[in-house]
Amino acid sequence: MDTGPHDGSLGDNEESISSYRSIIEAVQDGIFIVNLDGTITFVNDSLCSLVGHKPNELVGETFDTLVESELVQPEEFDRFDTAIDNLANGDIQDQALTFEIGQDTDQMVEVRVSKHIRDDGTADIVGVARDVTERERRAREAEQKQEVLAKLYQVGAEASLTFEQKAERILSIGCEYLDLPYGFLTRVEEDVQEIVHAVGDHTLLQPDESAPLEQSYCRKTIKSDGLVGMQDARAELGETDRAYELFELGCYIGTKVMVGENLYGTFCFAAPYDRDRQFTDGEREVIKLLGQWAGYEIERQRFEERLEGLHRISQQLLGAETTTEVAEVTIETVAELFDLPVSAFWKYDAGDDVLRPVVETDDAVRIVGEAPTFERGDALLWESFDSGEIRNYEDLAEQSEAYNSETPLRSEVHIPCEKHGIITSSATEPRAFDEIDIESLRLLEALVTEAITAVKREEQLAERGEALQRQNERLEEFADVVAHDLRNPLTGAVGFLEVARKTNEAQHFERVEQSLDRMEQLIDELLMIARGDRQTTNVRTLQLQPIVEESWSYTDAPKATLSVDDPLGEIQADETRLLQLFGNLFRNSVEHGSDDVTVEVGPLANDTGFYVADDGPGFSEESRAEIEELEETEGVSGTGIGLMSVTDVVDAHGWTLTIPDTDHGARIEIRTGQRSE
């Protein structure tokens, strides 16, 4: 490069100019020299190219020439002129300034000026000018990018905003950043693009508007690995492209929105005109971040909605009174709240070791028919149930163990609820369940398991309560039996004691002692019954008639009559318990008959055993049936505690009791299985 003086340079400065030769040869930037009064004494070719002037148009002139040619704005030149004055006056040693030059351009020039003292003591100012347009552009883009990200962060951090409000603000931020009028978020399902949120006045790019995916710009975005930016859509797509014909967008940029690993839709910006420049890497990166934000917000919103829904139905689940009710609430939640319409609940039947269907959705019945009962090992369901782990089968066609190879279902999730049962959700397309579905079902499973556990706990408590109630009733009945059975010998003892006191005869005192002995033996027998031992403990051969007469002697019924059909013969029995039996039969006749009731005891004519009859009102059909059900006698009603005690003695001896039909009065027949003599 020729770095010597050009035409129009001052000859006496040749020596000064030559001193800069080495510098000029080493740089590609524009170089100029100005004396202290502001006159240009030297310029190189690079500077002339930068400012668009020839050397002779600059050397010998001042930089006012650039202002006059409108290359530099007056306010920009004023800063430069001030810097030159400061250097000339020695106020500063060097300074760097950045200017915008040219008309209707974004060209930026950085100028560095410094004062240079020659060997002879004279001074001038050396300047270096560099084109920094690209650097400044990148700096502005970085600054704009940071501003967008800061705004995005602020919008995302505002917890009071709904997703709809956030989406509208983010779209507006993107439109401002790209200087494009349209911004829209789409959802893509079954080859249809639906606008979810939008800004701008394009009639087809409004919420709820939809179009076939193949007629949309977003089809290219979805098919791409990254995002798609078109500066001139007509040139890239062609005027006959169906999307261009429908939407007539001149430029477009869009990125996929992913929720987890699944495609949700697209996040896009566009204009009805071509763009004057390509989308930069920075702009592409920002749009990609906006798409990622949209995916994250949609995922968060879905999960929060499900959490709120689970909270709402948790009390309903925990308040359920049966497993079936829990299953119904569960499947309704899965179908409506989780938007999983093909779902069912199987209950584990431990008795038969099968999984029985309890509840299934209408869509499940429509697609696969009525749910079957699964025997162990019949289907994948058993593997999941036995494992106790949630399993997501992304493609059932790849599972050789599938229950029905002809099933239209392609994917399925199994959610075991411990050993209570299992929930299933299915779909006719593969890989239909995302992470939100799985995590939501995991949380639901915890609620369902707790609800079923609570139901079973309540059932157990109810059973225990019923058992305790029955036990209390039995204790009350036992207390009544004790009081009833002890009344007979106690009454006899009191009566004999009264006679003994009056007569002072030993035989009456002996009868008192005998009655007390009977009471002691009876108490022992009753305690054995209370402990569950219904067997007799002292069976021996007894004369039946003395037992009958002694039992009658304890009956406090002076007007009643005992009739004994001789001979009664012998019997193998426990004496105390046999006295208990007759005492209760006699008391029952007296209590239910008239004061002058007649009670008759005699042997059975055609069988071993005996009967007790009276001329009272007799038994009703209901009472007769209850008494004859010996295993249920503890719960009989309306027949009296005494008769309940009778059936207990009969059962303890292995005898049988029947109540035959009679024209009048009551008759009880007891067959002992042994011949009376």
Poorly predicted spans: 1-10, 630-640
The number of domains is: 4
Biggest β-sheet description: 6 strands, antiparallel
Mass-distribution shape: rod-shaped
* Class based on secondary structure composition and strand pairing: alpha+beta
Report the strand count: 24
Mean pLDDT, all residues? 82
CATH superfamily of the largest domain: Histidine kinase-like ATPase, C-terminal domain
Strand order of the largest sheet: 8-7-6-11-10-9
EC number: 2.7.13.3
GO molecular function, one term: protein histidine kinase activity
Keywords: Kinase, Transferase, Two-component regulatory system
InterPro entries: GAF, GAF-like_dom_sf, HATPase_C_sf, HATPase_dom, His_kinase_dom, HisK_dim/P_dom, HisK_dim/P_sf, PAS
Written description of the protein model:
The protein folds into four domains: 11-131, 2-Layer Sandwich (Beta-Lactamase); 139-305, 2-Layer Sandwich (Beta-Lactamase), CATH 3.30.450.40; 319-433, GAF domain (Beta-Lactamase, 2-Layer Sandwich), CATH 3.30.450; 477-671, Histidine kinase-like ATPase, C-terminal domain (Heat Shock Protein 90, 2-Layer Sandwich), CATH 3.30.565.10. It is built from 21 helices and 24 strands. A hairpin with a 2-residue loop joins strand 10 (251-259) and strand 11 (262-271). Residues 1-10 and 630-640 have low confidence and may be disordered. By secondary structure, it is an alpha+beta fold. The protein is rod-shaped and about 170 Å long. Its EC number is 2.7.13.3. GO terms for molecular function: protein histidine kinase activity. Residues 16-91 form the PAS domain.
